[in-house]
Design goal:
- The chain is mainly alpha-helical.
- The protein has a domain of about 55 residues.
- About 45% of the residues lie in helices and about 5% in strands.
- The protein contains three helices and three strands.
- It has a three-stranded antiparallel sheet.
- Helix 2 runs antiparallel to helix 3.
- The chain is elongated and about 55 Å long.
- It starts with about 25 loop residues before the first helix and ends with a strand.
Length: about 120
């Protein structure tokens, strides 16, 4: 088994460990939140790979992915038409900026706002 390179909770890079068991979380609090999320998922009868994500974050991520996909198509057409690489890069970069700010972290505890599982079921 290979050592994980990113935190199982937030996705941030993990510092390399030379001895002992490989780390799975970048912080103790992330290990605790993951434990709480597993307990919540068990209580809600979710499948092991499912996670609760606030609906507004899922919506923002989808919008960002859609914008980035559109920018890729624009750049492909532009480059075929003779646009320069610098202009194309700026267009892609601008589309990617908004998506880079979206952090899809699972919920560790049930909150009153609407949440969505990653497979698309909704609960309130």
């Amino acid at each position: 088994m290979t050592n994980p390179t990113s935190c199982d909770w937030c996705g941030d890079p993990l510092a390399a460990s030379s001895s002992g068991r490989p780390r799975r979380y970048c912080r103790r609090s992330h290990r605790q939140r993951a434990y709480e999320a597993r307990l919540l998922a068990e209580r809600m009868d979710l499948d092991p790979g499912d996670a609760l994500i606030p609906v507004d974050l899922v919506r923002r991520a989808r919008e960002g992915i859609r914008a980035l996909s559109g920018a890729v198509r624009d750049v492909e057409r532009g480059l075929r038409a003779g646009d320069d690489y610098e202009t194309s890069f700026r267009h892609l970069y601008a589309a990617a900026l908004g998506l880079g700010e979206v952090r899809l972290e699972p919920r560790a505890a049930h909150e009153p706002e609407r949440v969505s599982t990653l497979r698309g079921r909704h609960t309130s």
